[in-house]
Amino acid sequence: MLVSPQLTPARARGEPAREPVWEATSGDRQARALRFRDAALPYLDDVYTLARYLLRNSSDAEDAAQECYLRALRHFDTYRGPEMKPWLFAILRNVCRAELSRRSGAALAAEEDAQADEEASPLWQEAPASPEAAMIRQWDAETVRRLVADLPITFREALVLREVNELSYREIAEVVGVPVGTVMSRLARARCMLRKAWIAEDGLRT
Amino acid sequence: MSCAETHILLHALLDGELDAGHAREVEAHVRDCVRCAGEFRAYRSMREAIASAGLRFDAPLSLRRRIEKALPAAPQRAANRRAVLKGFVMGTALSTAMAASVVIGVIRSDEQERVLGDVVSAHVRSLQGDHLTDVQTTDQHTVKPWFNGKLDLAPPVPDLTAQGFTLIGGRLDYLDGRAVASIVYRRRKHVINLFVAPALDSPSQRTKLLSSQGYTICRWSAHGLEYFAVSDINADELREFVEKFEQSAG
After folding, report:
1. Which chain B residues are closer than 8 Å to A160 by Cβ?
2. Does the pTM exceed 0.80?
């Protein structure tokens, strides 16, 4: 007679054989983990990319991406869609903000205050008017990445979510937790800043 | 539309986020205003330059592996499940040696590995989204005729409600490149997919209880049909299901 190498706890506790609690829960957890892998792992490059731009450090970005996936799995039961990518980003954003405030809570708060002031000032007067200013030279990937990484975090975040992660305004609004109109004005300002830096780079090289 | 408004809205236009009415207004303003036209061109070309530079990073392979390892029940760890094996033979991909010391070990053929992988994939697929059943009913007399004309086989569809397995419907699926019937039962909250295919020449096979990627699979053949039952319920319960099914399908 062959016997089980391990009694299930349900039986050990004398519960009815029809309800092997431990086995069923374990099976659920495994099935759930497999569903989670299929649904979430395809976005690992996206998650890692966003983490790189938010934290500006590759090993911190790896840690943040890993933490993001572990948290996402823990909350997978309450995930009701619709889109997996923005949901992962919202989790990642919390992880990254915790890391940034661990590095320096005061610095993060000060940077955000400064950005809030900047957001309040009118945008269009800053726009350069000369025809030369409309010329955009093509920079290599490394240069563009550096220019984007130098943007203040609020604008960097909006720009990367749009240009790199290809989220819609509505999805960005959900991830960041601001109205769609704010997303639009942040993007306008982010691009205005990036363009100035882009053109300044030209001056540095010639 | 003013220049100030245009300076913000032109970004939404570039991003394809404006409704048709606002898009026309911004386009009209850009056509008439030299300054705004220059802005629009500059941002459009910067966007193109960003896109062609390529700003994405690839996640390092080591990170991918770390995350896969950290997830519970990754396939590599699925062999931890052991089960009661009265009279059944179970093999697991990673613990053949362990199984051999407990029961008769089975070293799976490549063919079997592939088929089991297919069975588990089809099961997992059926649980995602809304594709568990093509015909949803607890009435066996509805499910059985539904397969007529869709498949070259007439699978038995016994009602096992009294035995604790509720019929919830049927579905067409594919296993190993063949169209097969799937009859779907539920045990409490757990779904059992029973795949039925025409048996390939081989004589009736003994019932084999197997496990793959954390799922329990029971494979057998009878009356010219080959069966695969797959679920996340434990081996005992799946064996019970197969016994009841065989008794009722007779």
Report:
1. 55
2. no
